[in-house]
Design brief:
It is built from 6 helices and no strands. The protein is mainly α and 84 residues long. The protein has one domain. Helix 2 crosses helix 3.
């Protein structure tokens, strides 16, 4: 999912592309997750950038992988708390 965030130079650019506020885009980035209701707009924005590789199939695979492995950022924070 992190690669998708790199398509957009700023949180504001992502926010504009998918129709949310900047704080919403920032929170998605922090959580390393773009909810599926924003995928159609995300795919359309990526296509306009010449990135036809951002497909529903790819997003579904990323989502499934995230569910299977959990959120690595969350796991890292939990590990930090456990040693603190």
């Amino acid at each position: 999912m992190a690669d998708l965030f790199r398509l957009f130079p700023t949180n504001a650019a992502l926010a504009e592309a998918i129709g949310v506020g900047v704080s919403g885009a920032s929170e998605m980035k922090r959580r390393n997750n773009i909810p599926n209701e924003y995928w159609p707009k995300l795919m359309k924005a990526a296509e306009k950038m010449g990135r036809a590789d951002v497909t529903l199939e790819k997003l579904l695979k990323l989502s499934a992988l995230r569910r299977k492995n959990g959120n690595p950022l969350k796991r890292a924070k939990e590990a930090e708390r456990a040693v603190a």
